[in-house]
Structures are given as C-alpha cells and as structure tokens.
Design a protein that fits this description.
The protein is of the alpha/beta class. It contains 21 helices and 10 strands. It is about 65% helix and about 10% strand.
C-alpha cells in the first residue's frame, strides 16, 4: 500500500502547488467544522438554558458566516483536487500512449489491443476517481478528525477515550477487507478489459461476424463476459458496503456508550448540558469523517490493481534504438548467418539466412504459406531483431543504427493497407508534414489515384473513415503507393501488395507499383508469381531456410519448390493433389 501511495504522489508532484492550496483549504474546512462543534456549548448553555439574547444574536450571525466560509473553501478544494486529478490522468494517458508507440513489434503481436485500450482508458479512470475523491477526503477528513478530537478532549477527555476506543478495531477490520477488495478489483478490471477487447474485435471483424451469421453467438459470448464482470463488481461492492456496515456499528456502539455515561454526568451536575452537547456534536461529527476515511482505505485498495496494470505497461522495455545514423544505401544489404525465433515458439522462423543484395536489385521472395517470407522482410526495418547473426547496410550493422535514420530509407506497401480516419491529403503526406500540395498531387498521379480522388465531393480534403472504410481495396492500395512514392525511399518492400485485389484493380495497382519501383533496391513478396518474373533474383524460402536462389528461367529448369509453385498457379494439367503428393 505504501508503495502505491508513493506512486500516486509521484504523479501528483508536478501539481504540488495546487495540492498545497487544496491542503490549506482542507485545514480551513477542518477548522470551520471544529468551530461548529465548539459553538454548540454557548448555543445550549447561554441561549437555551440562560436565555441570553446577545448570544442568540451573535450565534445567528456567526453560524451562517461559518457555513458560507465552509462552502467557499469546499468549492475551492474540490476544484483544485479535481483539476489535479484530471491533469495527472491526462499525463498518465500521454505517457502510456507514448510508451505503447515505443514498444517493439513483439509486444503487439503477442498482446491484445483491447487490453491496452482498457489500461489507457479504464484503469486511469479508476485512478482519477482516487485522486479526485479519496485524496480529497484524506486531506479534509483527517484534519477534521484531528480538530474535533482536540475539542472533544478539551471538553471531556474520559468521554472522548470512551467514544474513540472502538475505532482502531474498526479500521483494522476495514484494512483486512481492503486486501480482499484489491483481489476483487483486479478481477473486475480484467473483466472490463475482456469486455473492451470484445468490442474492439467485433468492430474490426463485423463483416466476418455477419457473413457467418454469428451475431447471436457473439452476443452470447459478450453476455457471458459482461455477466462475469458484473459478478466481480458485485463482489467488490459487497466488500465495500460491509466496510460501511462495520463503521456504522462502531459509531453506534461508541455513541451509545457516550450517551449512557455522559447523560449520567449531566444528571449528577458534573458537567453542563452545553458541555455535553458540544462534546456530543464533536463525536457525531467525528464518525462521519471516520467512515469516509474507511472509504478512502477501500478506494486506495481498489486502485492498486489498476496501478499495477498501468505500471506493467509503463515498465515494458522500449524498442531498442541504436546510435549510428545510417545514410542512403550506396552498395549493398547483407544478411549474415541470421536466425530468428518468436518468443513463444520452439522452432526458428528463420534459419541461417545468408544473402547479399546489391543496390538496385529486385529480390523476389516466394514460398509456401508460413515459410517465413514476411518475417524475413520485417527484419530489414528492425520491426524484429535477429536472435543470432546480423544485417548490414553498407557495412553498418542495423542493430547499431538509429531507428529513425534506418526507417527513413525504407518504404513499405503491404496487402494490409493502414490508413487513418483523416483526409486523403493527410494520409498520403503521413509522416512528411512539410510537403507541398503539388508534391502530394504528383505522387497521387503516379499512383493512378488522382482521378478517383477528384471524383470525391471534397477531393483531397475527403475524410476516408477508419482504416479507409469508404474506399475500395484498389483505392486503398493506390493511396498506400502514393504515400510510398512521396516518401521516395531507396529501399522498398512490397509485401503481397496485390494479392487481395480483383484482376481489374490489380492491373492499375501494378502500373502504380512500376512507377514506384524505379531504380530502388526492392524486396517483393508475392503469391502471384507473374509479378516476380522480372526480379533480378528469386529466393525460395521453406521452413525458414533459403532452399533455392536464381532467376525465373534458372529456377524453372530445376525440379524444385519454385517450379512446383509456378505450375500450381499456371499449369492446368497438374492438380493440387498431385503437387501435394510430390512435395
């Protein structure tokens, strides 16, 4: 618990002036609460018992002023605490998002986007509640209890001890419940994360859900997750409310003892009714902040699970950056005894890869599904790093290169086109804020995208929707190519850029790709082998190994995997069953 409180206050420190002002307001509020208890004695002894009119007038004027002051300082304190809490959560969300962007690809391939979204939005929301209400109550109620206990001791120390002797046992019981509350809160946050994950996946896969008529099944799965979340929330609610029950019982016992013993003192004439009423007012006012402090304890316990999840993300290792700025390729790219394995796999995805690629070469990479083609090209921009061996660009080990300088040399066009919910212009110029309008238009023309863009009512100012949902597959791909043309990289990776398109769209996109290729060093992945015939070299991957290498004509002359893949696509005389049997 102590470490969690330190974490919270570490994030609060940038706003310590606001918090100090809020603390001062809290002390004033505590003092005004004590003033109300103190005024109870003259209200009874001087006004009700003696009938003193001057005290009546005085109290009638002072009490509204005390309440006004308490209202003003409560408003100020609430505003300062809420604004501090919102600022802290804003900063946390910024830090979490920035950390997420700096994480290696392995994090995203092994995790859930819904879970990360839940951490950034839901977990930080819980922390905001803690800062806004719990820390505020900690300031106000602790000060109020201190002031009221002092007043109560001043009036009757023996009655005060009798009234508060039951509080330690109550706080002990609440603390024990708090540990159970942390476990319940952790499960509730995990349940909420699963709900968020389901929603994100359903939005992304709504076409698949509908095409397989899985609406009822998906709704049923969501109801199960929602019901599980409900159960965990109710478990946490029962623990929280049981804490309230304990504090109510404690308060009743304490006040019952005070009424019995204090009432006898008044009857005997040992103390005045005013003393007793002032004391009783203080005790009544103590139990309310004591119950709120118990709530603070529960809230802090509830915040521990979200804090753990937040710090799990914040403590993830960043993508490893180098220190050497790498320039434009002048000579070659070399794969030197490269091995790669995914963390959760037993077998290597790539095994002993040795390859030398001269500047300006077109290297086509072919192989069966799962052969390691995409993994191979993902090593070039350092989306993943080899577990053994190295990749060199002009003699520089890319593991030592800065990510920015390395990736500035590489353009990627893949079958999974990534577009943003922004304008056509912003998507083409993504990552290149200083480009001119003419440069954007020229890139679009080279990608055969200008004509369909101008058919939109707003042209280049048209917002294309999330992931370009308002565009066809061919239109998305051409915008992606326009983006690559505008970047003008010396190294280009084409990852099955036309595999999901119809024949008509493929023809147009292929023309756009030819405009993009130019004299660059190019790595092409394609299932449609017609797109790789003009490659300088074709390398064939099988189970992570380079098993064949050569030109199209050279490989056709052999009776290897490339020939079988080629026949499978273009020769109707061979059946799929025959080829499977051969392989």
């Amino acid at each position: 618990m102590r470490e969690d409180i330190k974490r919270i206050f570490r994030h609060v420190m940038p706003y310590k002036k606001r918090m100090m002002l809020a603390a001062i307001c809290s002390l004033i509020i505590s003092g005004l609460n004590g003033t109300l208890a103190w005024l109870a004695k003259p209200a009874v002894d001087e006004v009700l018992v003696k009938g003193d009119k001057s005290h009546l007038i005085f109290l009638s004027l002072v009490i509204p002023i005390v309440f006004l002051g308490r209202g003003i300082f409560t408003y100020s304190q609430n505003y300062l605490m809420k604004s501090s809490g919102i600022k802290v959560v804003r900063d946390l969300r910024n830090s979490m998002y920035e950390r997420m962007l700096s994480l290696p690809n392995m994090f995203f391939s092994g995790g859930s986007s819904g879970s990360s979204l839940s951490r950034i939005m839901n977990d930080t929301g819980v922390l905001q509640e803690v800062l806004t209400y719990s820390v505020k109550n900690l300031f106000v109620e602790a000060g109020t209890i201190a002031v009221l206990v002092s007043i109560a001791f001043w009036r009757r120390w023996d009655l005060t001890l009798m009234a508060i002797v039951v509080l330690p046992s109550a706080f002990y019981a609440v603390g024990k419940l708090g540990r159970r509350l942390k476990r319940a809160s952790r499960k509730a946050q995990e349940g909420l994360s699963m709900i968020t994950e389901s929603i994100v996946e359903s939005f992304g896969g709504i076409k698949i859900i509908k095409s397989f008529s899985q609406e009822k099944d998906e709704a049923s799965r969501f109801r199960d997750k929602n019901q599980n979340f409900y159960r965990e929330i109710m478990r946490a609610t029962r623990i929280t409310e049981f804490s309230t029950l304990i504090m109510e019982l404690t308060g009743g016992l304490g006040i019952g003892l005070v009424l019995f013993y204090g009432g006898r003192l008044v009857i005997r004439g040992t103390i005045t009714p005013g003393d007793f009423f002032s004391f009783l007012t203080a005790i009544f006012m103590i139990y309310t902040p004591a119950k709120r402090l118990a709530t603070v304890s529960n809230s802090l316990h509830q915040s521990r699970a979200p804090l753990d999840r937040i710090y799990t993300l914040l403590n993830e290792d960043k993508e490893r950056d180098g220190s050497v700025d790498i320039g434009t390729i002048n000579k070659e790219i070399v794969f030197d005894k490269v091995f790669f394995r995914y963390p959760d796999k037993e077998d290597d995805a790539l095994y002993d890869i040795n390859l030398r690629v001269e500047k300006g070469e077109i290297i086509a990479i072919v192989g069966r599904s799962g052969a390691g083609k995409t993994t191979f090209v993902d090593l070039i921009p350092k989306f993943y790093s080899p577990v053994r061996g190295a990749i060199y660009i002009d003699g520089i080990d890319i593991s030592k290169a800065t990510l920015k300088s390395l990736r500035a040399q590489i353009g990627i066009v893949s079958q999974d086109v990534i577009l943003f919910n922004d304008t056509v212009r912003a998507n083409i110029a993504f990552g290149m804020p200083g480009v001119t309008e003419d440069a954007v238009i020229n890139a679009a023309k080279s990608a055969y995208a200008h004509d369909f863009i101008m058919e939109f009512p707003l042209g280049y100012d048209t917002v294309i929707g999330e992931r370009g949902i308002r565009l066809s597959g061919g239109q998305k791909q051409r915008l992606s190519i326009a983006r690559a043309i505008l970047k003008n990289p010396p190294i280009l990776i084409l990852d099955e850029a036309t595999s999901s398109l119809d024949s008509a769209s493929e023809v147009v996109v292929q023309k756009a790709i030819e405009n993009l290729m130019g004299s660059r060093t190019i790595f092409v992945i394609a299932h449609r082998l017609s797109t790789v015939k003009r490659a300088s070299r074709i390398i064939v991957l099988d189970k992570g190994r380079i098993v064949e290498s050569g030109t199209h004509d050279e490989l056709i002359k052999t009776n290897g995997i490339y020939k079988k893949l080629y026949i499978l696509q273009f020769d109707d005389s061979s059946t799929v069953a025959d080829l499977i049997q051969e392989t």
